[in-house]
Design a protein that fits this description.
Blueprint lengths: L2 H9 L24 E10 L10 H19 L2 E11 L4 H18 L3 E8 L5 E10 L15 E5 L4 H9 L7 H12 L5 H5 L8 E3 L4 H12 L2 E5 L14 H10 L6 E5 L4 H10 L4 E8 L4 E4 L18
Parallel strand pairs: 2-3, 7-10
Antiparallel strand pairs: 1-4, 2-4, 5-8, 5-9, 6-8, 7-9
The structure holds adenosine-5'-diphosphate and magnesium ion.
Adenosine-5'-diphosphate binds next to helix 1, strand 2 and strand 3.
Length: 318
Amino acid sequence: MNEFDLIRRYFTRPVPPGYLGVGDDCALLPVAPGKQLATSTDLLIEGRHFLPDADPASLGYKALAVNISDLAAMGAEPLGCMLGLSLPRVDEAWLAAFADAFHALAHEAGCPLVGGDTTRSPDGIVISVTVFGQVEPDRALRRSAALPGDDIWVSGTLGAPHAALQWLTGQWPAQPALLAEARPALERPVPPWRFAQRLPGLAHAALDISDGLLQDLGHILKASGCGAILYYHQLPIDAVLQPLDESLVREAVLSGGDVYQLCFTSPSRNRDAIAELARAFDVRATRIGVIESGAQLKVHDAAGRPVPITSRGFDHFA
Ligand code: ADP
Ligand code: MG
């Protein structure tokens, strides 16, 4: 199979009206008049981000999901995506599973694949996805927009992807039943992109939790020149963590990555509107803290005592 057959068979799909998809020198996307284009790229490298035997369907799904998560974190509406793919060899079963999962999510999210590039790479698979979205000018949810007094919210639950990864890599003692329960959160994260598109105007700052709640919230605090208190007892701890030791739960919930849910801040007057929006889109949204002046991030328990934190690479701790 040559490069062109491969592109035609696996990566060429009908696109919606107003689009020009695969096959010309550029793709064309119907950006609505007056809207701002939002764009982001993520790179996945075999051996670094995934193992050589990783399930191709999970890879195809996740390569796009992590990018849609970035659009959600800006409050942008998905418009389309591009796929750069380097492969050591043509493995049709791998390509079919990868492409089917990719296109299924692209369709679901209104983010059609409109182009890309395909090359050979002797040293392993490289997957690069770029997404495009649109947002009202000046209404994107920037990391720098948090204000003292804002509530801090998180969507979904915390901890399950981290737990799944620890069990899969043997870093935690094997728990096959719990792993089976947690694994979809790692391999099939569902970013709340519909909910997120309605946050501009209600939320101030937002980002997606890819590196862990403390680390990622730290980015908002740094960009906004603020501090924060998190209420540990209010965190939406995933039910799969219930049987675990308290210290493991804390690690998973505060520092566990790969979540692809949103952490966002919003003035307290918008509490009801956000709860309503979350209900409308079937998203769990939980208030977990408050933005303060200063530069420290504190985590408190129900009695107001500091929760011990052991996290590397973060320097805002009290
Ligand atoms: P060019 O020579 O203009 O770079 P290519 O031969 O690389 O074009 O690609 C032909 C068409 O196929 C282009 O429209 C390109 O966007 C698309 N394409 C190539 N690889 C992929 C891919 N992995 N996924 C989606 N579209 C692709
Ligand atoms: Mg090319």
